[in-house]
Amino acid sequence: MASNATLDPDEFPWAPSRGDAPACLELVIAWSLDEPQRLGEAARVDETLILGRGTPDPFTPHARFRRWRPGPSSPATPLESPRISRAQLRLTPTRDHALVVENLGKNKLLINGEERERGQVHEGDTIALRNALVLVVVQREAPPAHGGPDDVFVFGAPDAHGMVGESAAAWRLRSELRFAAAHDHHVLLQGPSGVGKEIAAAALHAMSRRSARELVSRNAATFPEGLIDAELFGTARNYPNTGSAERPGLVGEADGSSLFLDEIGELPTAMQAHLLRVLDARGEYQRLGDARPRRSDLRVIGATNRPLDALKDDFAARFLVRVVVPGLAERPDDIPLLIAAALAKARTEHPDLADRFFEPSGWPRLHPDLVDALVRHRYTHHVRELLRLLWLAIATSPGDFIALTPEVRAGLSLGPAASTAAAPDQAAIEAALAAAGGRTSVAASALGLSSRFALYRLMKRYGMAQE
C-alpha cells in the first residue's frame, strides 16, 4: 500500500544539507588608501573576531578576507596598511543579524560617517577607519557553485561582456544569463531603470549560438506612432508608394540573430498582439504590402522596468525565460567596483583627468568620504545615477582629489558638512601628508579641510614644518 507521507526534500540524495552556510554578515572592502587593489574582498563575521593589520595572533580569531567566487574561494593576504593597528576593531555578531563594533586601536572609527568608539551596524551600513579603510556591511548568500568559460577574468574588473560585480547578486545574474543564452527561448529582462538591462541583453546574446551575427537593438518607446508595424516587420517594394524601396524591418534584420527591444512595456497593447505570431515557434510575420508571410529565426530579448501585468497576458507568456537584473540596493558591495571601472575608463579616454586625479600606478585619488556616501546612498536610477554623481564629483572637485563636494552632497540629499567637527590632530595630519607624498592640497582634501591654507594654519598651531 502506497504511503501518503510527504517526503522531506532533505531525504533526496542530491538535496544539499540545510544550514551548511548559516547566514551571517560580511565586511567588504570598499576603499583602501594603501591597498586599493583589494576592492571587493570580503570577510565573514560568524563569531567574535578581531580586525587588524599583519599576521594575526594564532590564539585570537581574526577577520580573514577572501575573494569569493564560484568554486573554491581565494584567501587574501592580511591587511598591511600602517594606519591600522594590529588589533584595531572587535567585531561581535548579534542574534538579530547585526554587528557590534568596538574600536581597540589608535585610528579613529567612523560608523556611517560619524565618529564613534562603539556602535552597532546592520546590512548596508559602512565602517571606516580614518584615511585608511572603508568597509561596507552586507549579508549575502554564497555565489553559484559553478562558473562558466566566460567567468575567468581579473577579480573586481569588468568581465568579458563588460559586466562589473563580485557580489552574490552579480554572480547569480551571470549564471541566469548563461542559462538563458544556452536555451533558445525568448527572454524578458526585468528591473528598475538604470540597472544595466542593455548590458545584460548584450551579454546574453554574446553567450548564445547567435553571437556570430550582430545584435539588433531598438528602444520600443521611440517607435513613431502609426509606423510601428513598418518599423518591426518592414515593407514590400513599391509600398506604400510606387518606387518605394523594400525594407526588411527589425524582425527581418534579426533573422539568425537576437532582437533586443528595450522598454518593451511601452508597446501599445494592440502592437503586442501583432507580435504574437512572430514570437511563436515558427516565427511568422508579414511585411506591409507583401502577399505572403515570411519566417524569421530570431530570439526576442525584451526589457522593461514596468510591472509584469503591464504586458498582455498572452504576450508575456511568450517570454518563457525571465531574468531580474538586480538594483544597487541588492549589491552595495559592487558600488566601489563600479566606481573603479568607470574611473579606469575615464582615465583612458580623458588624458587631462589621468594627469590630475590618478596616481602614476593608475589608481584614482578618491576621498573616502565620497566612497562612503556613494555606497550608502539609496538610488532610484541605480548605475546611471551612480555614474552621474561620480562625474559631478569629478567636475566640481577643486583640487587633484575626487572629493565629496557640496554639489555632490546636494545630489545625495545630504546636509552641508558639519562646521563644528573636531580639527584633525597632528598624527592625522602627518599620516595624510605621508599618504599624499607631501602634497598639501591633496592632504587637505583627505582631511576634509576647505583648502591647503586651512592645513597650513593647523600645521602652524602644532609647530610642524611646512617644507
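(ticket continues) Second input and output from the same batch:
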Amino acid sequence: MSQPPPIPPRPNVMFFFTDDQRFDTIHALGNERIHTPNLDALAASGTTFTHAHIMGGSCGAVCMPSRAMLMTGRTLFHIEREGQNIPEEHVMLPEVFRRAGYATFGTGKWHNGTSAYARAFSDGAEIFFGGMDDHWNVPSCDFDPSGKYPEPKDRSRNLDIQYDENNKPFRRIHTAPQVFDHVREGRHSTDLFADSTIDFLNRVDANRPFFAYVSFMAPHDPRLTHRRFHDAYPPDSIELPRNFLPEHPFDNGEMDIRDEKLGPRPRTPDNTKKQIGEYYAMIAHVDEQIGRVMDALRATGRRENTIVVFAGDNGLAVGRHGLMGKQNLYEHSVRVPLIFSGPGIPAGQRRRAFCYLLDIFPTLCELTGMPIPDTVEGHSLSNAILHPAATVRDSLLYAYRDLQRGARIGDHKLIEYAVDGKRTTQLFDLAKDPFEMKNLAEDAAHAESLTRLRNELRRWREELDDPCETFWDGF
C-alpha cells in the first residue's frame, strides 16, 4: 500500500525592517550611487512592490503609527493614537504565528510598548524600546517573557561622548577605544541586531517553523557608523536630488520639528550632500549585515523554505523640497521599499500595484496558510505577487496629524494643507513630474483631476473615520 506524500513543512518567515529608509535607496531599483549587493540579490530572487506606501502619521514620530499599522494590519485612524501600546483586541502579526506553533523571535527597535512585545514574541534579544538613540550605545534589553523590562543594559563602554539629536556632545561617559570625527569604532546597533538574529538561527529547533523580526534602528539619525562606510560616500561624490530646495515654499505646519533642525536653514548644498552620504553609509552597513544573516540562514539549510520580507517604516526627505524629515506627504517620505522572496514567489519581478505596509500582515497569512484575523483591514498582496497586472487598491490616502491630507488616483496626487487657518493645495502629475516640483492646482486643464481627488479625500474620511475635525472645517 502506497504511503501518502509527506506534508511539506510550513514556511518560515524572516522579516527585515529598517528605520527611515526611502524607496529609492537600493542599487538594483535604480540608485546607481548606493552599494547594496545583498538587497539587490534579494530583489533578484523575489518580487518587489515599487509603489508601497505608508498611510501617514498621527504624530511627529511617524515610525510609531507606521509600526502599529504594520503589526496590526489596521488603518491609521483605527490604531491606538494616544500611546505606544497596541491594545489586546488588535491581533498582531507575530501573534498569529506564535499561536500556530511558530517560534517567534524579535530583535531591535520596538516602538509599540512592552506588553505588546510580550504577546507577540516567544523569544528575543537586544530589544530597544524607543524611537531613536545612539547607535553605539543602544539601551537594549534581554528578552523577558513577563514583559516587564524594567531597565535596559548599559552599553556605554563603546564610546566616550554621547551626542544629542543635532550631533552635539552633551554627556561624557568614559573613554572609547577609538573616535574618528563622530564615527566611532565599536559594536554598532546594526551589528548587534544581526548578531542576535544569527544566534537565534543557530539555536532554534530545526523541526519548528520560525518567524524572525529583525528591526534595525538604521538609517535613522544620528547617522554614525563604521568609518569604512562613511569613507565610501564622501560629500563631493554625492549629487543633489533634483528636487533639492533651500527652503520649503510655504509653512507645512512642521517647519520647526526636531527632524527639520538637523540641518541649517536655508539648506546648503554642502551640508545636504554630507547628510545624504551619511544616510547612504548607514544603508550600506545594514545591507552588509542583512547579507550576514542571509548567509547564516542558508547555512542552516532552511533558506529554500523561508519567506524573506524586506521593508522600511517610512521615507525621509534629506534635502528634498527643502525638508529633512518625514513629517510630510511627498513621495520621498510616504513611499517605502518592499520586497518578498521565497517559496512560490516569482524571482526578479516588479509590481506597480498600490499597497501599504499594513497589507504585509494578510499577505504573510495567505502565503503561509494562516487565517487572517477579523481585526485586519489590509489587503493581501498574494494575488498581485503571482499576477503582474493584478491591482490591490484603486487609490491611496495619506494623512499627517491634523495638518495635511493627501490622495492619489493613477498618476495624479493631491496634497492639502491646513495650517493656522491657511489653506494650501498641491496637485502633481507623477508620470510627468515624479519629483513633485510642478504644482498644477491652479491649472484649469487639471480642474477635473483636482475635483476627483478632493472627492476621494472626502470618501476616505468617512470610510476610515478620520477624527481631525479641524482639518475638515470649511473643506
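Agent notes: The first helix runs from residue 37 to 45. The two ends are 73 Å apart (CA to CA). Closing as not reproducible unless the customer responds.
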